[in-house]
Design brief:
11 helices; 9-stranded mixed beta sheet; two-stranded antiparallel sheet; single chain; 44% helix; elongated
Length: 335
């Protein structure tokens, strides 16, 4: 173990990391040599030196080319992260030296990408700040590892009921209740007094089983004698959910802000069915032990201000809007 620590600290070089990533991507020594503009023997010799230093083989030769071993997968994954951080550092240093804008990378959920992020960008542009924002969309299961690896600086995501691990710092932006929505000319919109039993027999669009709101929704419906139909879609994709609702008789369980956004466009209608105490908590997440620069602080401030101006009150749900009668017709497109 001491030898491995010594090798990584004193002998593992930048060019070694580049070589490992190139082998993983190209899988053939000849291609790697051409890509790095070195000889094939040099590639083989350097790889052998790295494997000797690590104390384990990193690749296996197979008919399909060089396949990474378990040790290789570990080292390559971290090599990519290190190289990515160095590229980001280079870009930021050039921006600072040449007086250009500073970049901040934020990870966002699909729903906040529709509701919060466009308003945030408009606020950012109105302040004429020298900050450029890179937006990466994903779920919390992909965004938190990206935050840990340094691929994103801040995450706008769901805050679970239980605190995240101590490595993450969090701040609540707003809470958003779950509502029931359908397309504008859905059969349920023509009922004089739609109630929960009316949902029986309709396909559904639901959060995935792993979502913290799913169990609450299932329990709430079970108490009213409604079971989840076989014809249902589990999805966190906003475009998928809205598209399915638009072109089918499905009933969707969406956040109020998202449903309100598409209702205002004439695509969806929110049904007057309340689901008490079932809501999502949207907040900021960042690494607790990582220094937050001036640009990141500006982004966090503007995200707070943007969230406070949403129709949903910050950290508190606004009343649900009443259902609006509509004239049956073809669904309005959103694609």
């Amino acid at each position: 173990m001491a030898r491995l620590d010594w090798y990584i600290r004193a002998n593992l070089k930048f060019r070694h990391l580049q070589l490992l990533v190139a082998i993983d991507e190209l899988r053939h020594v000849s291609r790697v040599a051409a890509h790095l503009n070195v000889t094939q023997p040099a590639v083989s010799k350097t790889l052998a030196q790295i494997e000797q230093g690590i104390g384990a083989p990193l690749f296996e030769r197979t008919p399909r080319g060089m396949e990474p071993t378990e040790h290789g997968v570990c080292l390559i994954r971290n090599a990519r992260q290190i190289l990515g951080c160095l590229v980001n550092a280079r870009d930021e240093l050039l921006d600072i030296s040449e007086g250009r804008i500073t970049r901040v990378s934020i990870g966002v959920l699909p729903s906040t990408a529709v509701v919060l992020v466009p308003r945030f960008v408009a606020t950012l542009e109105s302040e004429a700040t020298d900050v450029a924002v890179n937006v990466r969309e994903g779920t919390m299961s992909t965004l938190l590892p990206a935050l840990r690896a340094g691929d994103v600086d801040i995450v706008v995501g769901l805050l679970p009921s239980r605190p995240l691990s101590p490595e993450f710092a969090t701040e609540l932006l707003y809470e958003d209740p779950i509502v029931v929505a359908v397309r504008r000319d859905h059969p349920l919109t023509t009922l004089p007094g739609v109630d929960w039993p009316a949902l029986s027999g309709h396909p559904m669009v639901l959060p995935p089983a792993s979502a913290q709101t799913r169990a609450a929704i299932d329990n709430f419906m079970a108490e009213r004698g409604i079971s989840v139909p076989r014809r249902h879609v589990d999805s966190v994709s906003t475009l998928t959910n809205i598209g399915v609702l638009q072109f089918t008789d499905s009933v969707g369980f969406l956040s109020w802000e998202l449903a309100r956004h598409f209702a205002a466009q004439g695509t969806l209608q929110i049904l007057p069915l309340e689901i008490p105490n079932v809501r999502i908590s949207v907040g900021l997440v960042w690494m607790a032990d990582r220094h937050m620069g001036a640009a990141q602080r500006v982004v966090c401030r503007l995200l707070r201000e943007t969230a406070a101006r949403l129709p949903m009150l910050a950290a508190g749900a606004a009343p649900l809007p009443p259902a609006t009668p509509v004239t049956p017709g073809r669904p309005t497109g959103v694609w």
